[in-house]
Inverse folding.
């Protein structure tokens, strides 16, 4: 990916429905974790279905630079021979985490409790994002962090030679912060305790168990205490990565909105801490049927059959935000096409994503004619504008903004253009081709768009 040469794309409505059966790429959160936990385990882990997007490739490169043996064996098939907990070494060069907040923050956890010196940086989007939320609590294990501008990348870390266990109450609902502390706790003597007032995705807890660590979760639903005994023997254990529900979100909403569509998405991860979008769309009246529910690699998975539906406005409570935190831009598109008003509550965390997603989503909809407002941390969208589309959306190096805007173009009255499609590869390589395979009209802007009359 070369951020200096943006690739503008345009999407258009052509009247024909979307049809077909697809799979979306592997789950981004699980892919990062699989590489990290396997890199800390003893023995050889085989990973199937790994997301080969830019973000995850940064994690693979970083784990390799720290001493794990990470090899690609085929499409989505990776082999990792771990260095063992405490066995990683200082990288020879700066770790460049590209666009990935998850890679950067989780890696801080690993580095904090290893006797390692490392420097980490990222692209312009990642260098703007707050790192204090991880480096402040991680410092309590004995690591010393120095970061630019009060907590931004680049940062340098001298990890603790003999890390202390952590005890911390999460002030924000963030699986990244929780996971960073758990990763640090792996190489601390004693029990790391994390209090989680709002439940967030639990892939780290699941994967720790999968690799043989003793993780105790006390409390059900809201308000959990997570306890991890440090310095376990993590044993290599093969991982099958399910399809990413955050990526499935784009064809799901497209199929709901384009009249006459029927799309099946196979093998989608259905961890209940990730399914807030499906819950919300069903409240809007969506026709989504889940078939073949099963467990794969310790995570629930199913096939989703999605048929076009007239949606109505919705009021989404703030406590649902962690279960659909990455899905608000595409939900906002669905709301702009729904009948009536929608209110999406408690979206403060969107301000510190790959872009300020609250501002960027507002701008995406407004430039395309939708009526939308931000009221504190809530977004209010009036559905059913007279005429939608015709705008150029600034994606601010944010893959999810790009894909959301292209889905909007498939149903808007006039084409929608995005300034740069290159960042889509961070989470969803092949997105444009996959959507075109379903019948969508999307292509590079500035030339003839295949399929467009
Ligand atoms: C992620 C957690 C979420 C999410 C991100 C992936 C993870 O971030 O937005 O895309 O893999 O843990 P926060 O934990 O900061 O909410």
């Amino acid at each position: 990916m070369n951020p200096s040469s943006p690739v503008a794309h345009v999407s258009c409505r052509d009247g024909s429905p979307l049809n077909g059966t697809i799979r979306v790429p592997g789950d981004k959160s699980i892919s990062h974790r699989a590489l990290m936990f396997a890199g800390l385990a003893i023995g050889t882990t085989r990973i199937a279905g790994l997301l080969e997007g830019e973000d995850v490739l940064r994690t693979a490169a970083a784990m390799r630079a720290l001493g794990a043996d990470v090899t690609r064996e085929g499409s989505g098939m990776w082999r990792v021979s771990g260095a063992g907990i405490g066995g990683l070494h200082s990288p020879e060069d700066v770790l460049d985490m590209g666009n990935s907040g998850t890679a950067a923050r989780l890696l801080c956890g690993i580095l904090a409790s290893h006797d390692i010196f490392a420097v980490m940086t990222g692209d312009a989007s990642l260098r703007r994002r707050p790192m204090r939320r991880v480096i402040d609590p991680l410092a309590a294990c004995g690591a010393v962090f120095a970061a630019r501008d009060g907590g931004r990348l680049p940062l340098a870390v001298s990890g603790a030679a003999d890390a202390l266990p952590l005890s911390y109450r999460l002030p924000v609902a963030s699986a990244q912060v929780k996971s960073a502390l758990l990763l640090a706790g792996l190489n601390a003597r004693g029990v790391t305790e994390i209090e989680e007032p709002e439940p967030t995705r639990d892939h780290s807890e699941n994967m720790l168990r999968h690799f043989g660590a003793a993780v105790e979760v006390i409390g059900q639903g809201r308000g959990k205490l997570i306890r991890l005994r440090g310095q376990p023997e993590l044993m290599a254990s093969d991982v099958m990565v399910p399809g990413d529900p955050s990526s499935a979100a784009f064809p799901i909403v497209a199929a709901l909105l384009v009249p006459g569509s029927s799309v099946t998405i196979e093998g989608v991860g259905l961890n209940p801490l990730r399914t807030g979008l499906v819950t919300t769309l069903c409240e809007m009246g969506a026709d989504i049927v889940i078939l073949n529910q099963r467990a794969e690699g310790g995570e629930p998975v199913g096939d989703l059959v999605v048929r076009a539906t007239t949606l109505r406005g919705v009021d989404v409570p703030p406590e649902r935000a962690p279960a659909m935190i990455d899905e608000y831009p595409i939900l906002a598109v669905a709301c702009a096409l729904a009948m009536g008003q929608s209110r999406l509550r408690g979206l403060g965390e969107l301000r510190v994503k790959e872009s300020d997603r609250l501002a960027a989503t507002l701008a995406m909809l407004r430039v395309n004619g939708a009526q939308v407002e931000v009221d504190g941390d809530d977004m209010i969208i009036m559905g059913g504008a007279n005429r939608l589309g015709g705008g150029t959306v600034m994606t601010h190096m944010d893959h999810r903004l790009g894909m959301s805007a292209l889905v909007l173009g498939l149903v808007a009255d006039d084409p929608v253009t995005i300034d740069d499609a290159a960042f889509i590869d961070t989470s969803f390589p092949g997105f444009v081709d996959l959507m075109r395979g379903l019948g969508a009209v999307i292509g590079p802007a500035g030339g003839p768009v295949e399929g467009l009359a």
Remarks:
- Residues 9-26+242-444 form a domain with the UDP-n-acetylglucosamine1-carboxyvinyl-transferase; Chain fold (CATH 3.65.10.10).
- The two ends are 30 Å apart (CA to CA).
- The chain is about 30% helix and 25% strand.
